[in-house]
């Protein structure tokens, strides 16, 4: 018998090697208590959170929490059914209304996660004989959506407008084409040149899908994302998003102005063949989305935080993923996995939690300490974070002095 687990041996060995150095397992952290969007108890110690996607701090918003409690009381703990049968409650319609208002778009379809939204929309709209042209650094859910469908998949170099154009030029003119882009790429926190890329896509007759998971709520004058910021939201055929980041709960969605969009509710398998979100979740999401429509001050403060952290880390001598702060994610590049894990642990022992990211999630084999800021981080907290980075950086030898 072939042990089907033998394919994981290299990963098991790498993991065992890392843990043998005495470092704490970076991928099994437990938060014993979460006190606010920016503070939790980890290993019995009060810890500043700098590695969540709670960009707008909505997880503890009192109105959001009240809405969830009320829905739990009135509608129960779960729907136990699919959206197309017994799983559409009033709250699912209300959150779709909130999304349509938030984006000023005609249609909104809510999925149980953002992962499923990409899986469902991409695999359903691009079929046999069609082409999906996507950035090579796309999120796993986009790649998995491609794998699930029957379209030809054509990757191009990350954020390279010319490479996108070259690929599109080679495809049959009459074929159906879907260009898939992200607003913010979550590993390095860099944004896409959507304006130029969408112009190229449209010139070659392609439809465009943009995943705005890491920009919704924060980037753009109304928080609609990078496409709004760059003035091209009207040219996007499908926006994919998630409730698991700025919205502060769980769920995924697609919004669109396509006149035939509603048929997706009958043909999209990751929408049809799974249970819908619990009533408390859709109630929290709807409340949060409506509040995010009026969150200009929070957005401004989050930009301040991002600029302060980026400038501070740069001044300390850390190598960063982007030359300028482009989003709420600041990626610190580590020399290798071992030293990255040691730095991650030194920060955690000093009461600061960031994400350790490594291949295959990261581009170009990089090990990263990914910092993601929250609108609820105060300026003092960011200064405190910088002090902890300095101490850990010196202790591990990642910065000099
Ligand atoms: C770009 C992107 N798309 C989609 C998702 C999936 O979102 P969810 O957590 O709702 O499944 C993520 C999550 O990390 C993401 O980064």
Strand order of the largest sheet: 4-12-11-10-7-5-6
Number of strands: 16
The appropriate CATH architecture of the largest domain is 3-Layer(aba) Sandwich
Bound molecules: pyridoxal-5'-phosphate
Helix segment tally: 14
Q: What is the general shape? A: globular
* Main β sheet profile: 7 strands, mixed
- The helix-and-strand class reads alpha/beta
Approximately what portion of the residues adopt beta-strand conformation? 15-25%
**Assigned CATH class of the largest domain:** Alpha Beta
Share of helix among residues?
25-40%
Q: Strands, helices and their partners?
A:
Layout: H1 9-20, E1 31-36, E2 39-42, E3 45-49, H2 62-75, H3 90-103, E4 107-111, H4 114-125, E5 131-135, H5 140-148, E6 152-156, H6 161-170, E7 177-182, E8 184-185, E9 190-191, H7 194-203, E10 207-211, H8 226-229, E11 238-242, E12 252-256, H9 264-267, H10 269-272, H11 279-292, H12 296-316, E13 329-334, H13 337-349, E14 352-353, E15 355-357, E16 367-372, H14 379-396
Parallel strand pairs: 3-14, 5-6, 5-7, 7-10, 10-11
Antiparallel strand pairs: 1-2, 2-3, 4-12, 8-9, 11-12, 13-16, 15-16
Bound molecules: pyridoxal-5'-phosphate.
Pyridoxal-5'-phosphate binds at residues 113-115, 118, 139, 141, 182, 186, 211, 213-214, 242, 244, 252.
Describe the structure.
The protein is of the alpha/beta class and 401 residues long. It has two domains: 140 residues, Aspartate Aminotransferase, domain 1 (Alpha-Beta Complex); 232 residues, 3-Layer(aba) Sandwich (Aspartate Aminotransferase, domain 2), CATH 3.40.640. Helices cover 40% and strands 18% of the residues. It is built from 14 helices and 16 strands. The strands form four sheets. It has a seven-stranded mixed beta sheet with strand order 4-12-11-10-7-5-6, with helices on both faces. A four-stranded mixed beta sheet has the order 1-2-3-14. A three-stranded antiparallel beta sheet has the order 13-16-15. The termini are far apart. The mean pLDDT is 96. It binds pyridoxal-5'-phosphate. The site of pyridoxal-5'-phosphate (PLP) has 14 residues, from helix 4.
């Amino acid at each position: 018998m072939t042990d089907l687990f033998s394919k994981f041996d290299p990963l098991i060995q790498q993991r065992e090697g890392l843990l043998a150095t005495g470092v704490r397992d970076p991928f099994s952290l437990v938060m014993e208590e979460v006190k606010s969007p920016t503070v939790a108890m980890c290993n019995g110690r009060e810890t500043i959170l700098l590695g969540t996607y709670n960009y707008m701090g909505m997880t503890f918003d009192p109105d959001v929490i009240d809405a969830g409690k009320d829905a739990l009381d009135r509608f129960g703990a779960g729907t136990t059914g699919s959206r197309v049968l017994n799983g559409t409650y009033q709250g699912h319609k209300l959150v779709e209304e909130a999304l349509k208002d938030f984006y000023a778009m005609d249609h909104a379809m809510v999925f149980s996660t953002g992962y499923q939204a990409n899986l469902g929309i991409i695999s359903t709209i691009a079929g046999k004989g069609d082409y999906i042209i996507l950035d090579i650094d796309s999120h796993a859910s986009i790649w998995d959506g491609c794998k699930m469908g029957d379209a030809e998949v054509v990757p191009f170099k990350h954020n390279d407008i010319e490479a996108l154009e070259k690929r599109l030029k080679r495809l049959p003119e009459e074929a159906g084409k879907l260009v898939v882009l992200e607003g913010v790429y979550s590993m390095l926190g860099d944004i896409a040149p959507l304006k130029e890329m969408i112009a190229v896509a449209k010139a070659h007759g392609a439809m465009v899908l943009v995943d705005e998971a890491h920009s919704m709520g924060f980037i753009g004058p109304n928080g609609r994302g990078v496409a709004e910021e760059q003035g091209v939201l009207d040219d996007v055929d499908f926006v994919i998003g998630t409730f698991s980041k700025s919205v502060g709960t769980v769920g995924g969605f697609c919004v669109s102005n396509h006149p035939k969009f509603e048929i997706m509710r009958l043909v999209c398998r990751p929408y049809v063949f799974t249970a819908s979100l619990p009533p408390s979740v859709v109630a929290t999401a709807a409340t949060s989305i409506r509040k995010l429509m009026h969150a200009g001050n929070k957005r401004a403060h989050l930009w301040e935080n991002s600029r302060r952290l980026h400038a501070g880390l740069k001044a300390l001598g850390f190598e960063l993923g982007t030359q300028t702060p482009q989003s709420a994610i600041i990626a610190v590049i580590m020399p290798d996995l071992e030293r990255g894990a040691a730095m991650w642990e030194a920060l955690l022992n000093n009461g600061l939690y960031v994400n350790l990211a490594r291949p295959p999630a990261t581009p170009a084999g990089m090990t990263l300490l990914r910092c993601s800021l929250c609108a609820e981080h105060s300026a003092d907290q960011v200064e405190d974070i910088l002090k902890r980075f300095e101490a850990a950086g010196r202790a591990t030898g990642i910065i000099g002095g």
